[in-house]
Every structure is written in structure tokens, then in C-alpha cells.
Design a protein that fits this description.
- The chain is α+β, with helices and mostly antiparallel strands and 88 residues long.
- It is built from two helices and three strands, in the order αββαβ.
- A three-stranded antiparallel β-sheet has the order 2-1-3, with helices on one face.
Amino acid sequence: SASYAGRIKARIKPNVVFTDSVPGNPVASVEVRAAADGTIVGRRLVRSSGVPAWDEAVLRAIDKTEVLPRDVDGRVPATMVIDFRVRE
């Protein structure tokens, strides 16, 4: 659904631990793979933000999240690419 990406970010974002000050609003794009029940089975950085500490903070947050919520139709997409901005 249209709001699903927002729900995914809302689940992951609280797990991001990043206190550095960086100029601009860099974006890390991450491919997340999930099992049918929402369990995260893999993630990889597809486009670096240019700030290695931010990239690592996002990847750690995804690992900590472990399970994604189901969409309104009860399913979880097998693969999705999600953009994470420092100021969001």
C-alpha cells in the first residue's frame, strides 16, 4: 500500500543510533530482504550516503529491528529498497 514504506521506516528509525553532526541531509539506500512472516533475512547497502557512520547506523538499526510489519493485505514484500535520510 502507499503508506507501507512509511510504516517500515517508522519501525526501523527508532533503532537508529547516530549522534554525529553532518552537513546536508545525506541518504543511505538499503535493500531489505524479508521472509513471508516479516522476519528480516538480509540487508545490503545499495547506495552509500557518503557518510560511513550513517550507513553503518542504518544497517545496525535494520539488524536490531528483526521483523517488519505486514502490509494491509497481510503480506510482506520479499525485497524492497528503502532510503534513510539523516534528517527525517
